[in-house]
Amino acid sequence: MGQEQSSNSSNTSDSSFRFWPRRGRDSGRSEPKSCSNYVVVVNPGNRNDQVDIPELAKLKEIPIFYPILRSNLNIPGLTNPPDIRTKLSPFAIYAILQKLQNRLWVNAERVSSEQRKLSAETKKIDSVIVGLKAYPHERCNQLLHLKGELLRIDSLYLQISSISEMLREAASLAKSLNSRLPISDRLPELVFNDDMSGLSQPVEEQRVVDLGVLQDFSKLTTMIPRM
Question: What keywords does the record list, in alphabetical order (predicted)?
Fold first, then answer.
């Protein structure tokens, strides 16, 4: 047994002696490794559970604080105490819920009033839009009516132009007749302006002219109206 132990010890020593030089050679040849490949073990030392500081002892004597509803912590084995309903007073929660209900009611009333205002404004806008839709139709009808009136004005202008031509022809005939009368019996000459406003020399009286002296005409009595 002694030989076996000695042989084992020699083998271990040889292996250890072989390991360190080889490690040194390998470390010399290879690149330096990072520190993450090594694990550092720290000796925890002797832990003394007894605390000599009185403040720490008082802190350790304080029990763990749990909420009233312990089941909310989701810790296995931790349940609510059986007398939890007697410890909880519903009046505070009821008061909070009443305040919340009142606040919600006030907000609902405000929202409903704003909605009524918006609906009224929407109706007003709809009525204005309907009026705006009817406005172009009315204007279009007015334009069509004015177009018809303009066409009537054009026709009246053509009629007035034809009447003006007829009057000019009549004036030329009257001028020729007037030139055949004696000088004492001649009437003032009819002269039309461009705007056909009337005579250049107004006639003050009506005269009856005897045309029996003319050779080309038979006896004719005519009346020239006062212009």
Answer: Lipoprotein, Lysosome, Membrane
In a domain, 126, yes or no: yes
Q: Tokens 């009246």 correspond to what residue?
A: 156
Cα separation of the two ends of the chain: 173
How far apart are alpha carbons 220 and 224 in whole angstroms? 13
CA distances from 172 to 91, 176, 215, 219 (A): 119, 6, 19, 21
Q: Please tell me which residue, 131 or 29, carries the higher pLDDT value.
A: 131
Answer yes or no: is 138 within a domain. yes
| Domain ranges, residue 103 | 54-82+91-180
Flag whether 139 is in a domain: yes
Q: Which residue has the higher pLDDT, 128 or 104?
A: 104
pLDDT the model gives residue 132: 86
Most confident range, picked from 65-69, 84-88, 119-123: 119-123
Would 225 be classed as within a structural domain?
no
Contact status, residue 178 vs residue 203, Cβ threshold 8 Å: no
Rounded Cα distance, 177 and 171, in Å: 10
